[in-house]
Protein backbone atom coordinates (compact mmCIF):
# COMPACT_ATOMS: atom_id res chain seq x y z
CA UNK A 1 0.00 0.00 0.00
CA UNK A 2 1.33 3.41 -0.95
CA UNK A 3 2.11 5.73 1.92
CA UNK A 4 1.33 9.31 0.94
CA UNK A 5 2.08 12.56 2.76
CA UNK A 6 -0.01 15.56 1.71
CA UNK A 7 1.67 18.77 2.82
CA UNK A 8 -0.89 21.55 3.06
CA UNK A 9 -3.74 19.10 3.63
CA UNK A 10 -5.93 21.81 5.13
CA UNK A 11 -6.13 23.71 1.84
CA UNK A 12 -8.93 23.27 -0.68
CA UNK A 13 -6.90 21.14 -3.07
CA UNK A 14 -5.10 19.33 -0.26
CA UNK A 15 -8.31 18.24 1.44
CA UNK A 16 -9.72 16.84 -1.81
CA UNK A 17 -6.48 15.02 -2.65
CA UNK A 18 -6.49 13.47 0.82
CA UNK A 19 -10.12 12.41 0.44
CA UNK A 20 -9.56 10.87 -3.01
CA UNK A 21 -6.44 9.00 -1.88
CA UNK A 22 -8.25 7.65 1.18
CA UNK A 23 -11.18 6.56 -0.98
CA UNK A 24 -8.77 4.35 -2.89
CA UNK A 25 -7.42 2.78 0.26
CA UNK A 26 -4.03 4.48 0.46
CA UNK A 27 -2.26 5.20 3.74
CA UNK A 28 -2.46 9.01 3.90
CA UNK A 29 -0.89 11.42 6.38
CA UNK A 30 -1.94 15.07 6.53
CA UNK A 31 0.98 17.42 7.16
CA UNK A 32 -0.44 20.65 8.55
CA UNK A 33 0.63 23.68 10.58
CA UNK A 34 -2.42 23.60 12.83
CA UNK A 35 -5.42 21.42 13.65
CA UNK A 36 -6.15 18.95 10.86
CA UNK A 37 -9.26 19.75 8.79
CA UNK A 38 -8.91 16.94 6.27
CA UNK A 39 -10.29 13.40 6.44
CA UNK A 40 -6.87 11.93 7.24
CA UNK A 41 -6.54 10.10 10.54
CA UNK A 42 -2.75 10.18 10.42
CA UNK A 43 -1.57 13.71 11.09
CA UNK A 44 1.81 15.43 11.41
CA UNK A 45 1.54 18.95 12.79
CA UNK A 46 4.65 20.80 11.68
CA UNK A 47 5.60 23.81 9.60
CA UNK A 48 6.90 22.80 6.18
CA UNK A 49 10.22 24.56 6.72
CA UNK A 50 10.75 22.57 9.92
CA UNK A 51 10.29 19.21 8.20
CA UNK A 52 13.30 16.90 8.11
CA UNK A 53 14.39 13.93 6.02
CA UNK A 54 13.37 11.73 8.93
CA UNK A 55 9.84 13.16 8.90
CA UNK A 56 9.41 12.19 5.25
CA UNK A 57 11.24 8.86 5.41
CA UNK A 58 8.09 6.71 5.99
CA UNK A 59 6.41 7.87 2.77
CA UNK A 60 6.55 6.63 -0.81
CA UNK A 61 4.92 9.78 -2.17
CA UNK A 62 4.98 13.40 -1.02
CA UNK A 63 2.42 15.90 -2.33
CA UNK A 64 3.10 19.62 -2.05
CA UNK A 65 -0.38 21.16 -1.89
CA UNK A 66 0.75 24.37 -0.21
CA UNK A 67 -0.75 27.69 -1.21
CA UNK A 68 0.43 31.17 -0.27
CA UNK A 69 -1.69 34.17 -1.12
CA UNK A 70 -0.35 37.37 0.48
CA UNK A 71 2.40 39.62 -0.85
CA UNK A 72 4.62 38.60 2.06
CA UNK A 73 4.10 34.86 1.73
CA UNK A 74 3.83 34.32 -2.05
CA UNK A 75 7.64 33.85 -2.40
CA UNK A 76 7.31 30.80 -0.15
CA UNK A 77 6.11 28.85 -3.20
CA UNK A 78 9.75 28.76 -4.31
CA UNK A 79 11.37 28.47 -0.88
CA UNK A 80 9.22 25.59 0.34
CA UNK A 81 9.48 23.63 -2.93
CA UNK A 82 13.27 23.94 -2.85
CA UNK A 83 13.31 22.81 0.78
CA UNK A 84 11.19 19.75 0.01
CA UNK A 85 13.40 18.91 -2.97
CA UNK A 86 16.43 19.06 -0.68
CA UNK A 87 14.76 16.66 1.76
CA UNK A 88 13.79 14.23 -1.02
CA UNK A 89 17.07 14.44 -2.93
CA UNK A 90 18.37 11.00 -3.87
CA UNK A 91 15.68 9.14 -1.92
CA UNK A 92 13.71 7.78 -4.88
CA UNK A 93 10.49 9.01 -3.33
CA UNK A 94 8.00 10.57 -5.73
CA UNK A 95 7.21 14.26 -5.35
CA UNK A 96 4.05 15.88 -6.78
CA UNK A 97 3.49 19.63 -6.76
CA UNK A 98 0.13 21.37 -7.03
CA UNK A 99 1.11 24.14 -9.42
CA UNK A 100 -0.46 26.93 -11.42
CA UNK A 101 -1.45 27.55 -15.03
CA UNK A 102 0.64 30.69 -15.49
CA UNK A 103 3.76 28.68 -16.31
CA UNK A 104 2.16 26.76 -19.20
CA UNK A 105 3.65 27.50 -22.61
CA UNK A 106 1.77 29.33 -25.35
CA UNK A 107 4.05 28.64 -28.32
CA UNK A 108 5.83 25.56 -29.69
CA UNK A 109 9.22 27.20 -29.16
CA UNK A 110 8.47 27.63 -25.43
CA UNK A 111 9.31 31.32 -25.36
CA UNK A 112 5.97 32.66 -24.00
CA UNK A 113 4.04 31.52 -20.96
CA UNK A 114 0.45 32.27 -19.97
CA UNK A 115 1.64 34.77 -17.37
CA UNK A 116 3.42 36.76 -20.12
CA UNK A 117 0.19 37.62 -21.94
CA UNK A 118 -0.75 41.34 -21.79
CA UNK A 119 -4.30 40.30 -20.90
CA UNK A 120 -3.17 38.30 -17.86
CA UNK A 121 -4.95 39.77 -14.79
CA UNK A 122 -2.54 42.06 -12.97
CA UNK A 123 -3.88 41.09 -9.56
CA UNK A 124 -2.84 37.47 -10.13
CA UNK A 125 0.56 38.22 -11.61
CA UNK A 126 2.62 38.01 -8.36
CA UNK A 127 1.21 34.54 -7.60
CA UNK A 128 1.58 33.27 -11.17
CA UNK A 129 5.10 34.67 -11.46
CA UNK A 130 6.09 32.97 -8.19
CA UNK A 131 4.67 29.68 -9.42
CA UNK A 132 6.55 30.12 -12.70
CA UNK A 133 9.76 30.47 -10.70
CA UNK A 134 8.68 27.54 -8.55
CA UNK A 135 8.35 25.19 -11.50
CA UNK A 136 11.69 26.40 -12.87
CA UNK A 137 13.34 25.57 -9.54
CA UNK A 138 11.73 22.13 -9.46
CA UNK A 139 12.61 21.40 -13.10
CA UNK A 140 16.26 22.06 -12.28
CA UNK A 141 16.32 19.07 -9.90
CA UNK A 142 17.44 15.88 -11.59
CA UNK A 143 18.00 14.37 -8.12
CA UNK A 144 14.29 14.29 -7.26
CA UNK A 145 11.48 12.27 -8.89
CA UNK A 146 9.20 15.30 -9.26
CA UNK A 147 5.99 15.81 -11.23
CA UNK A 148 4.55 19.32 -11.47
CA UNK A 149 0.78 19.30 -12.00
CA UNK A 150 -0.71 22.51 -13.38
CA UNK A 151 -4.48 23.06 -13.36
CA UNK A 152 -6.37 24.87 -16.10
CA UNK A 153 -6.47 28.67 -16.15
CA UNK A 154 -9.85 28.69 -14.40
CA UNK A 155 -9.33 26.54 -11.32
CA UNK A 156 -12.81 26.25 -9.82
CA UNK A 157 -13.08 25.37 -6.12
CA UNK A 158 -16.85 24.99 -5.97
CA UNK A 159 -17.55 23.41 -9.37
CA UNK A 160 -18.96 19.87 -9.20
CA UNK A 161 -16.92 16.77 -9.91
CA UNK A 162 -17.48 15.31 -13.36
CA UNK A 163 -15.15 12.34 -13.00
CA UNK A 164 -13.51 13.31 -16.28
CA UNK A 165 -10.45 15.32 -17.22
CA UNK A 166 -7.85 15.74 -19.95
CA UNK A 167 -4.22 15.21 -19.00
CA UNK A 168 -1.93 17.39 -21.10
CA UNK A 169 1.68 18.48 -21.30
CA UNK A 170 3.25 21.75 -20.20
CA UNK A 171 1.60 23.45 -23.19
CA UNK A 172 -1.54 25.52 -22.60
CA UNK A 173 -4.67 23.98 -24.11
CA UNK A 174 -8.42 24.58 -24.21
CA UNK A 175 -11.53 22.45 -24.67
CA UNK A 176 -13.83 22.38 -27.68
CA UNK A 177 -15.50 25.58 -26.47
CA UNK A 178 -12.19 27.41 -26.23
CA UNK A 179 -12.23 27.23 -22.42
CA UNK A 180 -9.47 26.34 -19.98
CA UNK A 181 -11.11 25.22 -16.76
CA UNK A 182 -11.16 22.40 -14.24
CA UNK A 183 -12.81 21.84 -10.88
CA UNK A 184 -10.74 21.20 -7.78
CA UNK A 185 -12.50 17.83 -7.49
CA UNK A 186 -11.52 16.68 -10.98
CA UNK A 187 -7.99 17.99 -10.42
CA UNK A 188 -7.74 15.88 -7.24
CA UNK A 189 -8.92 12.86 -9.22
CA UNK A 190 -6.19 13.49 -11.80
CA UNK A 191 -3.54 13.96 -9.12
CA UNK A 192 -4.33 10.64 -7.44
CA UNK A 193 -4.50 8.91 -10.83
CA UNK A 194 -0.99 10.20 -11.51
CA UNK A 195 0.18 8.88 -8.15
CA UNK A 196 -1.51 5.52 -8.71
CA UNK A 197 -0.19 5.04 -12.23
CA UNK A 198 3.35 6.32 -11.67
CA UNK A 199 5.34 7.70 -14.56
CA UNK A 200 5.65 11.35 -15.60
CA UNK A 201 8.79 11.79 -13.50
CA UNK A 202 10.61 15.01 -14.38
CA UNK A 203 7.57 16.30 -16.28
CA UNK A 204 5.19 19.20 -15.95
CA UNK A 205 1.69 18.09 -16.87
CA UNK A 206 -1.61 19.95 -17.04
CA UNK A 207 -5.18 19.05 -16.14
CA UNK A 208 -8.32 20.53 -17.70
CA UNK A 209 -11.91 19.53 -18.32
Automatic annotation (TrEMBL):
Domain named NAD(P)-binding: residues: 8-197
One GO molecular-function entry? oxidoreductase activity, acting on the CH-NH group of donors, NAD or NADP as acceptor
InterPro entries in the record: NAD(P)-bd_dom, NAD(P)-bd_dom_sf, Polyketide_Oxido-like
Which Gene3D superfamilies is this protein grouped with?
NAD(P)-binding Rossmann-like Domain
Pfam families registered for this protein in UniProt: NAD_binding_10
PANTHER family membership: FLAVIN REDUCTASE (NADPH) (PTHR43355:SF2)
Q: What is this protein called?
A: NAD(P)H-binding protein
Lineage in the entry?
Bacteria, Pseudomonadati, Pseudomonadota, Betaproteobacteria, Burkholderiales
